[in-house]
Amino acid sequence: MASLDRVKVLVLGDSGVGKSSLVHLLCQNQVLGNPSWTVGCSVDVRVHDYREGTPEEKTYYIELWDVGGSVGSASSVKSTRAVFYNSVNGIILVHDLTNKKSSQNLYRWSLEALNKDSSPTGVIVSNGDYDREQFADNPVPLLLIGTKFDQIPENKRNEVLTRTAFLSEDFNAEEINLDCTNPRYLAAGSSNAVKLSRFFDKVIEKRYFTKDPSQLAGFTDRKRFNFKSLHYD
Predict the structure, then answer these.
(1) Residue 64 CA to its chain's centroid (Å)
(2) Cα(60)–Cα(149) distance, rounded to whole angstroms?
(3) Which residues, including other chains, have CB under 8 Å from residue 179's CB and lie 6 or more apart?
(4) Whole-number Å distance between alpha carbons of 49 and 200
(5) What values do phi and psi take at 216, rounded to 5?
(6) Which of 197, 202, 18 is nearest to 99 (CA)?
(7) What are the C-alpha distances in Å from 178 to residues 67, 87, 119, 192?
(8) What are the φ/ψ torsions at residue 23 (nearest 5 degrees)?
(9) H or E segment at 144?
(10) Where are the alpha helices (DSSP H) in 62-181?
């Protein structure tokens, strides 16, 4: 196969939310039989057709960097993890729909990755006003993916989906909710597949077609996140 241009997408979220299963599904279109804990970082590659079906169609490699650990890790672990955050073109934030804490922690994951040169340990998740405009100015495309959709009790589903809709709005990102053990959630032509393709197209556009050179260097070269307080209803 001829050499293809590529982009780097981080896959971030708490241990146990299903990042490895998600990456395997995205790259191999198969269910991961025996998922295990990720130590450090694991990288897999997805082949993506940018602007498929148009005259601009072109094939790219999407490198998916599954970063292990937790946001509660010691500062030394976070410093080691920071090496994975260089030259990032997009970020997939993954949370467990049955675990509210994993959703809250996405704020800290995003802070750690986008402010890789500073420490987010002073950030407190609490009720209060949240400045969505900070993400509106963020040049790094974000996608929010909720896992274990099948495990939400029917009588709790509306409540959970309402909560994730607010989360999506906070991050200025589209959301996909799925079950990583069922490929039909990403079936060709489905709304989830369209959202995923749209996200990867956006990542490629930011990397290869942006006219603003300041956006290519990474978010931290332009502006840092500075959350005064974060809310999570």
Answers:
(1) 10
(2) 30
(3) 147, 148, 149, 150, 151, 185
(4) 9
(5) -80, -25
(6) 18
(7) 20, 28, 32, 9
(8) -60, -40
(9) strand 142-147
(10) 75-81, 100-114, 133-136, 157-171
The single-letter code of the amino acid at 3 is: S
Give the span between the Cα atoms of 186 and 190, in whole angstroms. 7
Res 167: pLDDT:
93
Q: Are 172 and 132 in contact (CB under 8 A)?
A: yes
- Dig out the tokens for 196 from the structure: 């995923």
Which pair of structure tokens corresponds to residue 66?
A: 């599954």
Token digits of residue 96:
């467990």
- In angstroms, the CA 195 to CA 152 distance is 22
Give the sheet arrangement for strand 6-12, strand by strand: 41-50, 58-67, 6-12, 90-96, 142-147, 174-177
Q: Contact, 93 vs 173, CB < 8 A? A: yes
How confident is the model at residue 122, as a pLDDT? 38
CA dist., res. 63 & res. 42, Å (int) = 10
Residue where the block lists tokens 């990867």: 200
- Token pair in block for residue 9: 């997408």
Token pair for 68 = 């292990």
Sign of the C-alpha dihedral, residues 183, 10, 131, 222?
A: negative
CA 135 vs. chain centroid, Å, equals 13
Mean pLDDT, each 10-residue run in order, the chain (233 residues): 87 95 96 84 96 97 93 71 93 97 93 70 40 68 97 96 94 96 96 98 95 48 42 41
